[in-house]
Amino acid sequence: MPKKKAIPPLSETVGNFFGRERLDPENGILIALSWGSDSVGLLLACVERFWTKNLRAAHFDHGLRGEESDRDREFCRDLCERLGVEFSVGTGDVTGEARIRKTGIEDSARALRYDFLFQTARSLGMRYVLTGHTADDQAETVLSHFVRGSKLAGLSGIPKIDSRGLLRPLLSVRKSEIVAFLASKSQPYRTDSSNADLSFSRNRIRALLIPEIEAMNPGFSKTMGRFAEYARELDARLENEVSEYLDAQEPPRSFDVVEFAELSEFFRKEVLSRLFVRMNGNGIGLSEGMVSEMLRFCSMRYGGKSKTFGALRLERWKWRIRYDKIPKA
Description:
Layout: H1 10-20, E1 29-32, H2 37-50, E2 55-61, H3 67-83, E3 86-91, H4 94-101, H5 105-124, E4 128-130, H6 135-147, H7 152-155, E5 166-167, H8 175-184, H9 201-216, H10 220-247, E6 254-256, H11 257-262, H12 265-280, H13 288-297, E7 306-309, E8 312-317, E9 320-325
Parallel strand pairs: 1-2, 1-4, 2-3, 4-5
Antiparallel strand pairs: 6-9, 7-8, 8-9
Helix pairs in contact: 1-2, 2-8, 4-5, 6-9, 6-10, 10-12, 12-13
């Protein structure tokens, strides 16, 4: 019977991540600490690997769970005090932010949390913000995006590094491995009571869908991580090809109608979809019907002179299609 592959210690996983990505921990690490097993495990692993020099932790109190939120915050404070890690706390009006942004509570909470983390990192001189996202989170994210009908950008899931200096060194690690690591340290953690609420689609995916899939493929979560990496590489390749096509056009911010019509339908859709995302800041509201309408506008038979798609404006100009962003009022 073949031996099971040994799982490296969590601190080694974190250290290998920094080495592989050629990142210098001396530039400062801020841990996003949320009291759950993932972030607590990440904090302990970083303390083991890097000690507490150039290491801080920060907790954002969403204020949505009353006394439970208070206990979460104090748990994080006590843990950092015991470990000798400097600790920062932030809070915000998540419900009010949701009204302003016209988004759901979860999206608004995420936006406020990351704003706080990056502001704290800057004020402390920390270069990197680390979160405890795992292979399980990656699988849930990709599946939820797939269910919503996302394209490649959505199926790319959670990036391990982004341009802001946000790092996710545990994306290759299963949550069960982190729980086992904490048990070996006799380190408690807290759980979110709302995780049991199946009215949230993410919770249904986690509690009902993924266990069924893993019954057929026990390695599903890590398989999804590899798929997300593939989707991200393919998405980046397509983005480069679209940019090269648009950058080669004369005059700028336009393209020739006849040449455009000779491209494959797939690539024409990619050009228009990515223009929509660039001008609108995201792909919210973009549908197959809208892409088809953009294609019709860019055909030589379309009679209209201009048409808007969110903040993207397309305008017929001689034998060219000009595009620009509609300024905010």
